[in-house]
Design brief:
It is found in: Membrane. By secondary structure, the protein is an all-alpha fold. It has one domain. It has 12 helices and no strands. It starts with 6 loop residues before the first helix and ends with a helix.
Length: 318
């Protein structure tokens, strides 16, 4: 088969060309750092909700396959536990463990999965997206707060209230512009109604704008990411995120009987680069902030190679 017409090449190339364009725009200061927050708000508050609601508004509950969740999340939590066990129960090890397990499902994953596997693949991805942050960030919060409480007691200080923190994280991940439109769209679909054209068309146009703008923003952020001095430590986390996690998810999927397109989607999702939410934990707990930033950047730079490998292998197996 001609490389230019290979499905993996065809789906990956537009994604990373747009990321590269954003990187160049960031380096040349066409898009300045001061504008990133406003552009991110446009993506997360307007474009993503339109895309997610419209996609899920035509999906009935009986069409959903929840087995990919059983394949994906136990594997990610197992790897998180292995990272903490290997490096010791510290806030640093938990944050790096989250970096090794938290995929960039939204900014890169949505566009890539839709290009490569169509709407059916996107629905499988969105079932994961709907609870991704809630499960992984809540577990990460619990473990981090337990470690902080232990350290506070050891120093004779007063520990923060664990469940208040976890409750705040849970509320923030549910009342959020990503899971909320997914759930709302699903509930609307169960009514059997169709979106009127006067509503559907604007949602379609907004959703179409999401992919290119989001990918350009990834590149702009990458241009401002410092990698110097953190290559070796970051490389270990990137190897776990981009290569080991997809392997573990593949084994988990096989064990619960996930096959075909859902299997491909969950494995490719696991191979996506590190998601930005991990840095918020590094910042909140004031640990490994520069290393986390470098890991996110290196994971994204390595993604064209590692995703090509994983997607090519899944195409060959299926």
């Amino acid at each position: 088969m001609n490389l230019a017409s290979h499905p993996v090449f065809v789906s990956l190339t537009p994604v990373f060309l747009l990321v590269g364009l954003g990187f160049m725009a960031g380096r040349l200061q066409w898009i300045r750092e001061a504008a990133l927050k406003d552009l991110s708000n446009l993506v997360f508050m307007v474009l993503i909700p339109a895309l997610l609601f419209r996609t899920m508004s035509a999906v009935r509950f009986e069409q959903l396959d929840l087995r990919p969740m059983l394949a994906y999340f136990p594997s990610t939590l197992l790897l998180l536990g292995l990272c903490v066990w290997r490096h010791g129960a510290t806030t640093r090890s938990v944050v790096l463990g989250l970096a090794a397990t938290f995929s960039n499902m939204v900014m890169i994953g949505i566009t890539l999965i839709e290009l490569a596997y169509g709407k059916q693949g996107l629905v499988t991805l969105l079932t994961l997206v709907s609870v991704h942050a809630l499960i992984q960030l809540s577990v990460g919060s619990i473990v981090l707060e337990l470690i902080v409480a232990r350290e506070a007691r050891a120093q004779g200080g007063e520990a923060r209230r664990l469940w208040a923190t976890v409750g705040s994280v849970a509320r923030g991940t549910l009342i959020h512009p990503i899971p909320l439109p997914i759930i709302s769209g699903l509930l609307f679909a169960q009514t059997g109604w169709s979106l009127p054209g006067v509503v559907d068309k604007p949602l379609q146009l907004l959703g179409s704008a999401f992919g290119p703008i989001a990918l350009v923003l990834v590149g702009v952020s990458l241009a401002a990411t410092p990698l110097k001095g953190h290559w070796r430590a970051a490389l270990e986390v990137v190897a776990a995120k981009n290569l080991l996690l997809p392997l573990m998810v593949a084994v988990g999927a096989w064990s619960v009987g996930v096959t075909g397109l859902p299997l491909t989607v969950v494995v490719v999702t696991a191979a996506l680069p590190v998601g930005a939410n991990v840095f918020l934990f590094a910042q909140r707990y004031q640990t490994a902030q520069e290393l986390t930033t470098a890991t996110m950047g290196l994971s994204t730079l390595a993604a064209p190679l590692t995703l090509s490998l994983v997607m090519g292998l899944m195409a060959w197996l299926n």
